[in-house]
């Protein structure tokens, strides 16, 4: 798992949060973990295939997730229902898609799978031997984390 | 939902965008309101019907503007429009066959909302930049 794979995800988040939410994003301290595990209530998993393979996990605190969708919809959201979860899945999908496009400019052609949203902090996602790098992303409405576990099949 | 900074400098397109954002907002309201789903269905159905027709009109008008001003990204932009038009058509067909399931409609509303914000907030702004670079308003 190379740290170079991380930057596109930060840049894409910066861009998408500015356009969709008019919010600035700062990057917190990176850390390596053994497995992808949700730290917050609202989670989105996206698979990656192609020149890089692995998984991405976006983990949003509940209050932040509700605030994000409130801002986008222009009306208050109070629960993590199908609408809110789907909107979060889309945001993660857009960020991942943009990040993958940036990776393509480094000659890494990847595809992403549709977002899977799940609620709760139980359990972890089984992975191959690769470690994951967790990127905390700090915004004025809260901090969420993106865990990136990608590896090149060519090594 | 609509923001003044979404304006691209074409009166027709800006007013259509404004209308689209307002309609999507009322769609979300209908989808998210408390109360029996059956009672909100009329509004949901009406908005979906409107959207289906209005995106066709709006995308056509916006592509006509792009042709008129010689916008270099026309082809790519039109392909994005076509893909989204198809997505709406498929959803409309699906509810026709399977009925309006609340959760499916909620998911679709979220998809339309995020698509509209990203598309108008990013891709369409490039048309605005092009108009300004050509010396102003349409």
**Secondary-structure element series of chain A:** HEEEEHHEEEE
- Report the portion of residues of chain A in β strands: 25-35%
- Number of contiguous helices of chain A: 3
Largest interface: A-B, 20 and 20 residues
How many separate structural domains of chain A?
1
CATH class of chain A: Alpha Beta
The largest sheet of chain B, given as strand count, sense and whether it forms a barrel, is: none
The fourth-level CATH homologous superfamily of chain A is CheC-like
Please give the CATH architecture of chain A.
Answer: 3-Layer(aba) Sandwich
CATH level 4 superfamily of chain B:
Hemerythrin-like
Q: Quick one: how many beta strands of chain A? A: 8
What integer value in Å does the Rg of chain A equal?
Answer: 15 Å
Describe the structure.
The complex is a heterodimer of chains A (155) and B (138). Helix content of chain A is 32%, strand content 30%. With 155 residues, chain A is α+β, with helices and mostly antiparallel strands. The termini of chain A are close together. With 138 residues, chain B is mostly helical. The model of chain B has no long low-confidence stretch (mean pLDDT 92). The chains are: A alpha+beta (155), B mainly alpha (138). The A-B interface holds A 16, 19-20, 69, 72-75, 77, 81-87, 89-91, 94 and B 1, 25, 28-29, 31-32, 102-103, 106-107, 109-111, 113-115, 117-118, 121-122.
Offer a quick outline of the entry:
Chain A has three helices and eight strands. Chain A has 155 residues and is an alpha+beta fold.
Give a quick set of tags describing it:
heterodimer; A: 155 residues; alpha+beta; Chemotaxis protein chec; B: 138 residues; mainly alpha; Four Helix Bundle (Hemerythrin (Met), subunit A); 4 helices; 81% helix; elongated
List the helices and strands and how they pair.
The complex is a heterodimer of chains A (155) and B (138).
Chain A (H helix, E strand, L loop, with lengths): L6 H15 L4 E2 L3 E3 L8 E9 L2 E8 L1 H12 L8 H23 L5 E3 L3 E4 L12 E8 L2 E10 L4
Antiparallel strand pairs in A: 1-7, 2-7, 3-4, 3-5, 3-6, 4-8, 7-8
Chain B lengths: L10 H22 L4 H33 L4 H25 L3 H32 L5
Helix pairs in contact in B: 1-2, 1-4, 2-3, 2-4
